[in-house]
Design brief:
Layout (H helix, E strand, L loop, with lengths): L1 H12 L9 H14 L3 H9 L9 H12 L8 H11 L6
Helix pairs in contact: 1-3, 2-3, 3-5
Length: about 90
C-alpha cells in the first residue's frame, strides 16, 4: 500500500496525471517495479520512458536528476539504465 502511494507521488512529481497512461500499463508498471524491488521512482522512470515525447518536459529532467543524485534511482540496474537512456533521447538530463 505504501509503495503504491509513493509510486503515485513520483508519477505526479514528474508531471503525469494518474490517468495519463492506460490503466493496464499503469498497474503493470506498479506491480513489475514492486516485484523487481525497484524504488517507486525507478518504476515511474521505466513507465515514463515509454510515454509519448509530448508528455516529457525539462521539469522532468530536473526531477530525474534529483532522484539520481538522491539515490532514488540506481542506474546500475540494466532496465533502469535503459529507461533512462530512452528518456534522455528526448529530454536533456543534466
Amino acid at each position: 500500500m505504501f509503495y503504491a502511494w509513493r509510486y503515485e507521488m513520483a508519477l505526479k512529481t514528474l508531471g503525469f496525471a494518474p490517468d495519463a497512461f492506460p490503466a493496464l500499463d499503469h498497474r503493470d508498471a506498479l506491480k513489475a517495479g514492486h516485484d523487481r524491488g525497484d524504488t517507486p521512482q525507478e518504476a515511474v522512470l521505466v513507465l515514463a520512458s515509454h510515454a509519448h515525447a509530448r508528455h516529457r518536459s525539462r521539469q522532468m529532467s530536473a526531477t530525474v536528476r534529483d532522484w539520481i543524485l538522491g539515490g532514488k534511482i540506481d542506474l546500475n540496474k540494466p532496465h533502469v539504465h535503459a529507461a533512462f537512456h530512452r528518456l534522455s533521447q528526448t529530454v536533456t538530463v543534466d
